[in-house]
């Protein structure tokens, strides 16, 4: 009962959408009388000659190109480096001619305007120029108007960008790659043949003398059962961002399947250890930056940005157990597991571990709160196990449920499958096939309810268990052990 098996989480790629802003600048109306005066000085024959030289094929070709562009924009994905269709040589020359003549015409109009029109401008027209200039410089209008708000927004956005850059520079060197290589036996129709497998994840340098924090599910495929021993031909390597071509062999200091955490050790010193934050102080809506290796070491050191979306989210794991995690919309993908979730100060607030997959779900990533993670990893480093957890010392039959209990006329509870020798249950006289129905006076109907009550106590404390055995109820006293 005290063993908690964890098989990891299923992940899915996120897509990051970006958007831009554009500003429209309003022109001003020019006195029609001034323009008419200037236009009279332009030779009408010049305009007629230009019109004659324009070939109708130019218009036809531009219509074709416009249609092509519309189809392109309507597509789901398209390349921004799209090459425009080439024009025929004759059409190109005609276009050049039109452009030259248009330039001459425009130059004549503008030049005439400044020579003859500007002196004749009325004070009212000049005031329009002044007002427009002031508006573009943010001078006119209320200080609390739309224009001033817009410029403050730009400053905030630029500031956020600078913060993320600083975070990446500070934390990036502390997030490492982890490569796990092992050999699996694969059936090849007639024979069973060994096959090499490799998985990759992320880790965080938590001490400068070579201690690395990661997820248990990142490394467990290379380990034998619930031990810290490598299986035959397996190895775990750590890759530092500063020296990606030199993998460091890693040993497993300790791991905890219940919280999906593990600690590795490499022979290295003066490593850039991460700075710890306080996950109890974080608030929904504040900046969150995830750093890791999504998709493997090829994308090592990837940075994604979001916010804290929720706190104390109860997330089920593959064997039906649950963890309370931080929710974020910062993209977390396969390979990010074991990586860092940091706040605006570049302090570690969580260990990236999971993402909800499936159609229609985006921005649902989860991380283990760092206060809990640090408590676990500190204990693993010092004691090689998580100190202070109570243990009864039994294994249960998880298939026993209310339906089966009703069928055989038994009470609903926790069916004991095996009693560990010299454990607390063994010393209290608990036997195989006993059904535990109460824990210290509280009714328990399944494993989760029993675990919830047991974890309220500490090793060495005495509790009473009500047990159904051979058609009758008995009560035994148990002195809780420490789980190791």
UniProtKB/TrEMBL annotation:
Checking PROSITE patterns in the record gives: PDZ
Q: Which UniProt keywords apply?
A: Hydrolase, Membrane, Protease, Transmembrane, Transmembrane helix
- Domain PDZ intervals: 380-471
- Alphabetized GO MF terms: serine-type endopeptidase activity
For the keyword Membrane, the answer is yes
Gene3D superfamilies (UniProt xref): 2.30.42.10, 2.40.10.120
Q: Which residues span the membrane?
A: 96-121
Would you kindly state one Gene Ontology biological process term found in this protein's UniProt entry?
Answer: proteolysis
Stated name of the protein: PDZ domain-containing protein
Q: Which species expresses this protein natively?
A: Acetivibrio mesophilus
């Amino acid at each position: 009962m005290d063993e908690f098996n964890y098989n990891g989480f299923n992940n899915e790629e996120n897509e990051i959408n970006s958007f831009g802003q554009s500003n429209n600048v309003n022109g001003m109306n020019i006195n029609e009388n001034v323009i008419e005066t200037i236009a009279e000085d332009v030779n009408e024959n010049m305009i007629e000659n230009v019109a004659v030289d324009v070939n109708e094929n130019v218009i036809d070709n531009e219509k074709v190109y416009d249609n092509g562009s519309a189809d392109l924009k309507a597509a789901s994905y398209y390349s921004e480096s799209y090459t425009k269709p080439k024009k025929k040589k004759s059409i190109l020359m005609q276009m050049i001619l039109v452009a030259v003549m248009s330039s001459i015409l425009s130059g004549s109009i503008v030049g005439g305007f400044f020579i003859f029109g500007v002196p004749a401008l009325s004070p009212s027209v000049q005031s329009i120029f002044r007002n427009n200039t002031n508006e573009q410089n943010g001078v006119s209008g209320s200080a609390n108007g739309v224009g001033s708000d817009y410029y403050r927004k730009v400053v905030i956005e630029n500031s956020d960008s600078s913060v993320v850059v600083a975070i990446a520079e500070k934390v990036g060197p502390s997030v490492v790659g982890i490569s796990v290589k092992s050999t699996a036996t694969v059936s090849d129709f007639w024979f069973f043949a060994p096959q090499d497998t490799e998985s990759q994840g992320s880790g965080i340098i938590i001490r400068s003398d070579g201690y690395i924090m990661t997820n248990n599910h990142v490394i467990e495929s290379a380990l034998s059962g619930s031990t810290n021993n490598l299986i035959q031909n397996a190895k775990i390597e750590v890759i530092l961002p500063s020296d990606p071509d030199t993998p460091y062999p890693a040993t497993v200091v300790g791991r905890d399947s219940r919280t999906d955490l593990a600690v590795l050790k490499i022979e290295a010193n003066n490593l850039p250890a991460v700075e710890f934050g306080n996950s109890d102080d974080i608030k929904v809506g504040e900046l969150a930056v995830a750093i890791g290796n999504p998709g493997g070491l090829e994308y090592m050191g990837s940075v994604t940005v979001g916010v804290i979306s929720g706190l104390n989210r109860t997330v089920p794991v593959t064997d039906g157990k649950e963890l309370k995690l931080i929710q974020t919309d910062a993209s977390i993908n396969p390979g990010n597991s074991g990586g860092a979730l940091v706040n605006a100060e570049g302090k570690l607030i969580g260990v990236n571990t999971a993402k909800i997959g499936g159609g229609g779900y985006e921005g649902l990533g989860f991380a283990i709160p760092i206060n809990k993670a640090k408590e676990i990893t500190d204990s693993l480093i010092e004691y090689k196990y998580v100190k202070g957890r109570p243990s009864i010392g039994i294994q249960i039959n998880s298939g026993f449920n209310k339906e089966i209990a009703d069928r055989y006329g038994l009470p609903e509870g926790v069916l004991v499958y095996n009693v560990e020798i010299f454990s607390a249950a063994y010393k209290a006289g608990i036997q195989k096939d006993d059904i535990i129905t109460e824990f210290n006076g509280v009714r328990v109907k399944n494993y989760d309810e029993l675990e919830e009550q047991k974890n309220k106590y500490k090793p060495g404390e005495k509790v009473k268990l009500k047990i159904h055995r051979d058609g009758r109820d008995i009560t035994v006293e148990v002195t809780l052990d420490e789980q190791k």
